[in-house]
Predict the structure.
Amino acid sequence: MTRYVAIGDSFTEGLGDTMPDGTQRGWADLVAAGLASGKKQTIQYANLAIRGRLLEQIVTEQLDAALSLDPKPTLLSLNGGGNDMMRPGSDMSRLVTLTERALRRCADAGVRVLLLSGADPSERLPFGSMMRRRGEMLTESIRPFADRFDLTFVDVFHDREIRRGAYWSPDRLHLNAAGHRRVAGLVLTALGHPTEAHVIDSGLEAPRRVLTEARYYREHVLPWVTRRLRGRSSGDGRAAKYPDWTTVPA
């Protein structure tokens, strides 16, 4: 039986793909459903990702919990580093080292790994050019791990389609439902279950108007800056949404 566990931050938690009851779904949940459908059998699924988490927290606390699941996972997805890259003085080489250590632990435990680079939000973000440089550096540094550890690597960062504004939430930092659907299609195809990646109708991007930009900074940028100054995180006090195995039917 496939036992799939996902670790990471808001990208993997599913923030932005909000269900009618207020819960977050996201690409990892969609991948779990797609695996069950593709294999035509029930699978077990856990999602330990929590928004706001730094990579070190993901590859220590979350990875510890993932490898401690009973029975042991057969597939683990890993993505992280996005929150680190938004902080001043972020050390990309340290993120690569942390990723490599996590992959070695999984290899030693006999757990297959799905490694993802996150989608690129930089085109509409303040200091977006810095984010893109760091994202490029991290993506190209972890790419060789695919051969070294015989894992599946999905490069979402260089998917140009998902960079369009229509795939993103109003905060411009998290994917919306369409974005998560596209990532799920890319992942399922890479895992051997060919799935057409979701594409929305093409159209002109809405122009950036002064009042729109002012509202964006007031509603999204300033709260983020305030949390940073207070040493707070959007994930403080939150727990994983699926901390133990849950059944996903075929």
Notes: Residues 3-206 form a domain with the Rossmann fold fold (CATH 3.40.50.1110). The longest strand covers residues 242-248.
